[in-house]
Amino acid sequence: MYHKNQTNFRLNGDKVSENKLDTVRKKLYFAILLVVIFFSIGVYTYEIVEGWDMLTSIYFISATMTTVGYGDVVPHTELGRMATIIFMWLGISVGFYLIYTITEFREKEVDHRLIGVIRKVEGEGRRFGI
Fold first, then answer.
1. Which residue has the higher pLDDT, 11 or 83?
2. What is the pLDDT of residue 17?
3. CATH topology for 15-102?
4. pTM score, whole prediction
5. Between β-strands 8-11 and 14-17, what pairing exists: parallel, antiparallel or unpaired?
6. Closest CA to 86 of 56, 44, 32, 42
């Protein structure tokens, strides 16, 4: 079983260092921060450029960033349209980076705990002849 004070643990037979886990955590925190910053800039941009209220700006940047694009709210200024093009391309990139880092975090941080629990349960089952 993994304990915080251990420097290494095994995941699928591979030795993974605590430093590697720290790196994965930092990447995840960075990805979340990147999404928050990107999202905030997008909301502020549409409030200023299009004159939308905060809720409409949040709604639009969410739909744009997730590529949903309902079409009920659209930018009417040229600057707003150009900003939307930028937010589309960057939003997809930032969103995929976040998904990638969440997946990497799950593989390194969560899966090893599940594997440990499964092995423990299997050991207990053998002990009782199951």
1. 83
2. 64
3. Helix Hairpins (1.10.287)
4. 0.71
5. antiparallel
6. 42
